[in-house]
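> @MW can you paste both from yesterday?
MW: sure, first one:
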Amino acid sequence: MLYRLIIQNYAIIDNLEIDFAGNLNVITGETGAGKSILLGALSLILGERADPGVLFDKSRKCVIEGMFKVKKQQIQAFFEEHELDMEDQLILRREISAAGKSRAFINDTPVNLSQLSALTQLLVDLHQQFDTLELEKSDFQREVIDALAGHPDQLSAYTRRFYDYAAQQKELKDLLQQRDQANKESDYNKFLLDELLETDLKDGEIESLEAEQQLLSHSEEIKGTLDRVYFQLKEEEQPVLQQLRQLQASLQSLSAFHKEVPALAERMQSSYLELQDIAAEVERLNDGVQYDAERMEEVNDRLAQIYKLQKKHGVQQTLELLQIRDRLQADLDSALNLDDRITTLEKKIAALEAALQQEAAKITQQRQAQVKPFEEKVNGLLAQVGMPNARIKVDIRQAPLQAYGQDAIEFLFDANKSNQFGPIRKVASGGELSRLMLCIKSLVARSVALPTLIFDEIDTGISGEAAKQVGIIMKELARGHQVICITHQPQLAGKADAHYFVYKQMEGEKVNTHVRLLTQEERITAIARMLGGEKPTAAAIENAREMVAQ
């Protein structure tokens, strides 16, 4: 519950602190005194967008702080999900600078507005899940019936299975698109693959062929040079090897006369042997170099074939062509496997759908079981709050499988016993919506743990006995929940456990809003003024006293 609200520098509020009771809190005051401003400030700690134009004093920041008492299990999952530290009390704070910058905090830890809003939906019902705008929405109408049906675990299990089913359907859709695309491309891809397979490329082949082409193209030049080198080494009139042999012998003859000559002679002998080996290798290479016109033609044709493939596929190396070949083969193989995967997935989806339909049928039965008692109770409450001719009817129609079953649920409304029921969003007025929401909320509150409930003039347009009955419903609702209600009705104010009075007064050159908790006698006087004007009669005071005593 919200036990303290602190407002600083907001609209026409300079500094305000309110301690709320745990049951029925009523806020009254003259029109324009600032009652709705309190809710505007409260909405900031519920995650609403901030407007820097609401600052009371433009030179300092605005601070709104709400202190809550909560059951830890109520918010534990949220704190664990967002890795926040839980404390014995929960403090929410919004700060708005004069420049318009807004910051939000949960227990002094900075958070974003979406996090703040998600948490406060667990704490406060203000313009959120159960407001009159939501009443017109089909999701809310379904949630009301589900709350009364009391099957959250079953519904959660169904919803998880449905999302699995939806994921499988998406996968099937993707596979079907892949198959369609593969079918469009398969003929061309098969042509490309056959072309590469027919070419029968080997890794590094183009590099090897280009080297062979160079050799064949320059074979005459190579052979002429090798012939000349071999001839000069071994076969001319005074071959190099013969001269080197003679020079080595000359050095050897001097070995006895100089100690360093033998080493030189040995090195020359090594050079002779190395050149002799070179001559033999040159002769071998020369014998192996032959110009082959037929082979040259074969190499040129093969290279032309590969160059054509390279240009077609935009690559430079044989390995890249081989990778393209493998990818095309894999794509075609995958396309052949798609039919098997699609068939398997279709069977799985059919089984999931059958199971979902069985579960959805049970959920539908549970919902339908709540329709008649819900209609009877709401219609009874409508008569109690001054709408004796109004009727609500719940229309449940079969719909395609969805996340919450296979039902389309709509609340229909007839305000005048005309038996002409229409969708609430089309036929109910604002005042009717407000009272209808109160009736529905009072029923739902008995089935689920609603958070703090806040009503902003929900009793607009009623008086007398109807207003009294609204007060009775509010009082009953407050037995298990904290209720905060802004009202102009004395009948409702008389039911309050805590009565707050909002008023304005001039302070310097500014109007400032204040709130004070009324004593018993002050309550009687305030309610008497609501009954009889600024100067209530003795009868009005006595009437007010009776309202407070009831």
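MW: second:
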Amino acid sequence: MRKWLPLLTVSLSTFMLLLDVTIVSVAVPAMADALDSSFTDLQWTVDIYVLVLAALLMAIGSASDLFGRRRIFLLGLVVFAAASLACGLAPNIGFLIAARGMQGLGAAAMFATNAALLSATYRGRDLGVAFGVWGAVNGAAAALGPIVGGLLTEHISWRAIFLVNLPVAAVAIVIALRAVTESRDRASGRIDIPGTVTFTLGVSLLIYGLIEAGDQGWSDFVTLGCLIGAAVALVVFVLVERGRRAPMLDPRLFRGPSFSALMLGGFVLTGAAFANLVFVSVWAQTVLDFDPVKAGLVLTPLAGMSFVVAGAGGRLLHGVPPRISIGAGLLFVGAGTLLDMVIAPSSGWTALLAGLIVTGVGVGLASPVLASAALTTAPPERAGMANGAMNTFRQLGFAVGVPVFGTALAGQARATLSDSGQFDDPQATASALSGGGAPEIIARVPAAARAAVDQALHAAYADGLDRVFLISGAAALVAGVAVLLLVRPVPTAPRAAAADGPAGAAVPGGPAIPAPGGSQLPTGANG
């Protein structure tokens, strides 16, 4: 029994960090109401966690190789627990956003070391069992997140979704101190600080600019400044990485169409399948007037179907080239999100059921093999780097998807509200509606006009979701075709064996709802 204690602590940490992506999507309306937050605040509350996780994942992987994976893992657990406490006690929205960013830092430290700790602890059949259990934990977190979030929010408080992490983290820390042995790889090189700084600055400015675009418009000075700054920072990142002997991410990998297409596939899969669910949850709770538990259940068909398909697909699709599974999965995601465009002002949640199920099939097909497929498209000495890049791009897909979809939803809602002729300031109303303010908007109008206003808000949010699903579907279809046409593995015999790896957990995408199953090898920025 003692030999499985390291697996237990790694699984507990994984469960927490994934739960805190999915659990927040259901609690967002309650948080926004309690802390009187704006649409921009709403997006940052969800996005900052995944942004920090994505931006620092590869750098922390390198740090763990140098300074010890157990040490970094424990530090991540402590930071995550302290940040969870801060989130639960947050007096205002600014404090909550900052604490969520610290949570992302702790999550990055845990996530960057999880697979490496398992690989350093177990061998042979035990390693396969460990990764299989870890994969099941990923799936459980995905399926339970919305339901647990709804239960805690409705029956206790939105603060409970963060405070529940404290006892779990305490158990994980005690087990890690007693049962996990240290491992490191001092030959992995130095931490790429210039690359980390320029990459973090670039993606942060990009996300900030996209969020500001939804609130202030694309011509706003701050929006344009952030987007231009992001482009400059990312160009500098590429130049810096090209000149380093041990880069965090070698830009030359992207010369290969296979590697580039897979990174695009991982990025789009997470964004197209999951980022829109934040706004589906807001719609269910503030437009359809669902309680948090019911809103959580609305999101579970996707996670449940992905869990079933991933489990069955591992056996039924054995031997099928990864590009087929990934490309077909993306096509299913595209078809599923396009099916959700049937939503209308009078629609209930069942209008989304078919689309969510089809999308779940796509996620279950594609997610489990993304990590191992990335390894087949890079040279053997860059295997760790390819794996770290896939982790990062999947997280970035969610981080970028939230503001892109938020901007699209608010813009389309504004147009619909303007056409209705019932609102003096359609832009402000659209922003409030997108952020969960439908009940407050209705409460401010005379009783005689509430039915008409309610109908207009239903129409505006439905039109906004329609635009979001169109963008999701188109992006997934394009990415699916690109993967099918461009991905070809590096013809190296040893690599093919390594790609199969232990049966374990697919790298989660973020937030949002990662699919279980698949292959996962140790992370590491420098391979």
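> thanks! Residues 336 and 355 are 4 Å apart (CA to CA).
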